[in-house]
Amino acid sequence: MKDEIIQKPAFIFGKKNYIFMIVGLVFIALGFIFMAGGGSENPEVFNEEIYNWQRIRLAPTLVIIGLGIEIYAILANPKK
């Protein structure tokens, strides 16, 4: 019984990887937040605000950057 060695569970990723994952999730969340809204209170009235630069250019760009950061976070070597 005394010879049993209790091993501490090891994390798959390193601290750097988790930090990059959190940053990527923040970018993705911001992108989806910027995409939200723009609807009209009255369904009979069209709201041109749905086509502003924030929803068409900025939000999808943030989501794609966030996904790229997530891919980097997964593939980065935690040993370095």
Structure commentary:
With 80 residues, the protein is an all-alpha fold. It has one domain (15-75). Helices cover 55% and strands 0% of the residues. It has helices at 15-35, 53-75. Helix 1 runs antiparallel to helix 2. It is elongated. The mean pLDDT is 88.
Quick tags:
mainly alpha; 2 helices; 0% strand
Question: Brief overview, please?
Answer:
The chain is an all-alpha fold and 80 residues long. It has helices spanning 15-35, 53-75.
Summarize the topology.
Elements: H1 15-35, H2 53-75
Summarize the main sheet. none
Rg result: 21 Å
State the helical fraction.
55-70%
How many structural domains does the protein architecture include?
1
